[in-house]
Every structure is written in structure tokens, then in C-alpha cells.
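DM from R.C. (forwarded with permission)

"hey, sorry to bug you on a friday — could you get me a structure for this? deadline for the figure draft is monday and I only need the backbone to look sensible"
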Amino acid sequence: MKKISLLLGLCSLVSYSFADGGSFTLFPTQVVFENPGKVKEITLVNLSDSLLNTQSTLKTYQQKSVNGRIIESNALVGGSPAVIVTPVVMQNVAPNSKQSIRLLAIRQNPESEIVYRYYVKNLNPRSVDSSGTQFEIEYGMVISILPQHVNESYNLSYVKLNGKPYIKTTNTGNVHVLLKEVYLQSAGKPVAIGTVGRVLANQSMYLAVPPAVDKSLGAQIQLKVAKAGLINFDQESQVQLTISK
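My reply, with the result:
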């Protein structure tokens, strides 16, 4: 029987339903510690009509740039992690019931953010098509411990790579930034060009500008980015940048 693993990143409260049950939800979908010694909880809810068994894994959260795209390159945490997560295995979670997952931050880096990917996998893969293929669904959320002195900043620039226009976002701070709703503005008319997403410290991401849009904007380009705050993700700020071509 063929088995395929699927990884889903958590951006908001999510759930996944298998053809014959086994769906679950996790919330909140990201955890930020301002100081060590704090305990926070994630809640897993079994939305199916059968018993649920899951296993969790903690990995380092790393990014690398490949042809202008940011690719995750995560590995299992070696040694002693800065966050302790319990329980690791959840067995026989009853239908429509909840399971609390406790997270304890035990240290922080004074100068830079410690950031992990926390994965929860369903240990009961379900067949979802007539070929008998089984899908293992795994969710990955971000857990971060902020440094003692947070510097949340980034640079935006308009660049050309191989003759093609891009908006380059470089994280110049010491914590990750979450950028969204990226658009160019000309003559008061915004033109959406996509979503950048999460950019770790000291990383850069390139967002392609549609050629037709690039040619029609003239000598001046104004770019606006709505940035979600690290601690309170409900708060957003607007950033403007005027770029000369």
C-alpha cells in the first residue's frame, strides 16, 4: 500500500477531515514566549467520531534562499531544547473531546530569537482514494522565544534579477516578521502582487512583480505592506516605500 506524508503549515485555526474520520483542530496556531519560565497551552480537539492518536515533534525552524524563494530546512532539535512540550504522544483522545498540550520555555537567547516548528501528526493514517493510498497528515506551527531586546525591522527594495522585477524583503531585525497583503500603488490605485509570509532574521525573500504591472507604473512605485506584530497578531502596521526605477 502506498503511503504519502503531507505537511500543512498553520496560519489560522485549521482542521483536516479524512474520508473515514480522524480530523482534528489545534489552537492557537502559533505560540510566542516573551520570557522564559512561562507555561502556555495548545488545545487539540478531536473532531471525528473515532479515537484519535497523535505524536508531536519539535524541530529547529530554518530557512534558506533558493533562486529568490525561501525554503524551509528544518531538523530535529539536538541536545536540550529551549521549550519543553508535554505530552509528546496523545492516545485514545475521545471523539469531540479536547487534549491540552503544555509548553514551557526554559531559556532565551539575549540577542536573537529562538524559533521552532512544532509538528503534530495523526498516527492513524486514513485511506482517501480508491487506490488504497494512505495519507499521513502533519501540521507544523511556529513556537518562538523572543530575545531580551526585540528589534523587529526589515528593508524593502525594488530590484531586477535576470531582467525581471522583484520586491526584495530583507529581515534586518533579530526576530521573524510576518508580512502580508503586499501591493504596489500607482496613481492611488493599489495592485495586489501576493503574500510574502514569514521571514526569519537575516533572511531575504523576493516577490515577483507581474511584468504588465511593472511596465504600467511609470517612474515611481509606491509599495505598502501590512505587517502583523509578533506578540499580538491582531495588530497590524502600514509601511510605505517609494522606489525610483
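R.C.: lifesaver. The first strand starts at residue 3 and ends at 9.
me: no worries. Residues 211-216 form the longest helix (6 residues).
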